[in-house]
Design goal:
6 strands; Thiol Ester Dehydrase, Chain A; about 15% helix; six-stranded antiparallel beta sheet; homodimer
């Protein structure tokens, strides 16, 4: 079943915050991860490039970690945006999160050439600190579990 | 002080295992992380590319996670190779590890344009399972702490 993320939080980040190598729409070299709601869960779809290999035939763990990372910050932004009374596409600027910690358990080798689906469940730890528990599937196979603790971007990140 | 990793474990991986996007010498698009001994610690040096950005001026977390990941598997391979009586460059084929789990705590925004230094301490958990605790520095600033649990590559990875 083909799936699409039609309304992604990354489409709405202000231009200054849209250069992320993982999820920035303005970073020409990046992965362009896009994260949206699917019911009360969040979803990011991504098909790794042929060069994103660990051992030939299997996806590189660092790219899995990158997917979980940006899926986490994007999911947290979606959740806080909704809590603030907004939805993607209503013209309001979403909050921007950064990653405090990232954990990945690699459960099975992830086959290449298949679209990956990251599915996230979000928990508010504190108004500025959210936890996102993510499962990454290749088809029906659960390949990795991840956890991101994301915090609202601190002023130290403002260049 | 300029530093170099003169003898890296990744230089010795068999060709079939040298395609990793993070540390494979044969992957033209990859990061080419190289990991060697420095006393009883391990070191990987890496200067991120300009496109490896999170917010302009700061390094993307997924690239930090990738560095910690391959530094971890490379460090475990160095340690088991040494335990087996070998050193990089003695003509023997080193063991190859994969990542079971990866954890990263992002302590400070990592500035771009500076060479990063990952420094690892290695603990044997089991003959086939090693833990690598890593600190990533930009100059004198400790930017991230990571932990990798690496296991000797299982046969399920053989394509």
């Amino acid at each position: 079943m083909e799936q699409l993320v039609t309304k992604a939080i990354q489409d709405e980040y202000p231009d200054d915050f849209a250069w992320c190598y993982g999820c920035g729409r303005l970073n020409e070299s990046g992965h362009h991860f896009r994260t949206g709601w699917q019911g009360d869960q969040t979803v990011t779809l991504f098909t790794p490039e042929p060069e994103h290999t660990a051992i030939p035939g299997f996806v590189y763990g660092g790219v899995m970690a990158s997917l979980i990372d940006c899926h986490g910050t994007g999911s947290a932004a979606l959740a806080l945006h909704r809590k603030n009374g907004h939805e993607v596409g209503d013209g309001s600027e979403p909050p921007r999160f950064v990653t405090a910690s990232l954990h990945v358990d690699f459960l099975k080798p992830t086959p290449q050439g298949i679209e990956l689906k990251a599915v996230g469940k979000i928990t508010e730890i504190h108004p500025k600190k959210w936890q996102v528990d993510t499962e990454v599937y290749a088809g029906d196979t659960l390949c990795a579990r991840g956890q991101v603790v994301a915090v609202v971007m601190p002023s130290t990140f403002k260049a």
